[in-house]
Amino acid sequence: MKPVHIGLLGLGTVGGGTARVLKDNAVEIARRAGREIQVIHAAARGLGGQAPEGVEQARLTEDAFEVVRDPEVDIVVELIGGDSPARELVLEAIANGKHVVTANKALIAKHGNEIFAAAQEKGVVVAFEAAVAGGIPIIKAIREGLSANRIQWIAGIINGTGNFILTEMRDKGRDFDDVLKEAQQLGYAEADPTFDVEGIDAAHKLCILASIAFGVPLQFEKVYTEGISRIAPEDVTFAAELGYRIKHLGITRATGQGIEMRVHPTLIPEKRLIANVDGVMNAVLIMADKLGPSLYYGAGAGADPTASAVVADIIDVTRTLTADPYNRVPHLAFQPDRINDTPILAMDEVETAYYLRLSAEDKPGVMADITRIMGESGISIEAILQKEPARGETTANIILLTQRIREAQMNQALAEIGQLDAVSGEIARIRVESLGKD
Description:
By secondary structure, the protein is an alpha/beta fold.
């Protein structure tokens, strides 16, 4: 049978890793796919005439559009990243009748609706397993392995950089800025770490998970996003005293009012398996109505783990090349005409429990004022820790754990507490999730 011809866009960390995997495991891949898979055309900048490993036999160019227009290419593998020119390249590849494999989470989260509609019209496949959680086959798990289930909620550690920082803060008592510098030195964080530490990278991935879990259009702009840069070492310590660990989670949940999509630091009970996922590793916890909870753990980034997912998608697309377009696995898990318009909840409407840390004068009546405001706002307090003031200080740290309450009610209560003369500085707030069967 004629080999499948690959056009590879990008030969950086993931692109180079993909080329090597296709070369190193060529025999095994052909056995699984049913035919040989060859990279025949590749595009990257600054090649200088040198052919990287895995593309020695391929035509090389610095013009990526040359690859997507090559009539001999069957599958375009987009590993450039970013919005543009990735979007234009993918749409042109589809217009030319080529299947596409991508690891580009921003592209799918922001332009996936347009891309999938174009692919549906042309009868081609766009595969994107590597766009979420690197080498963990989470897209396939939800879209295929759990297709008999109603997904109730998903909670994931889907950014390794943030997880590394929080792990170091907990294990070694270091502050955020110190650990971030080390993460940059180790190559875990970019020179501009905003996408990782402020939750944007995780929000791209969560948007995709929500769509395939609940059959709604991709709506990245509706993901509530909060980073970890304001987490203080004392919050990590106090959380541990209360039996919790802080993780930067992406959470999506189906409720009677709509769908939650939120990324933020979260206290979770230390006994949960996902609370013990440390370092740069990723993990996704899924609650399904028939299976119950299932946890998917592995490397969320890196050349080989991500290439593993990219090549798995290439194999899947190769297997479907002769299939009827109307009998393939849908891009967003549900048939295109069954994607629904369930509303996405605003953060004010989300209900969760809270960890609060505030600094208040150590004198009678202060705690009574705080609990009164909480009670008037309909907020029940689960636990209280009050730390003695340091020697020579007149203010003490007060830590509160609340029961579940709407965000809007908590916002109102915090605004009133912040107006108390005895309360000084910013009130630290971290949401709390039990991640049980609720």
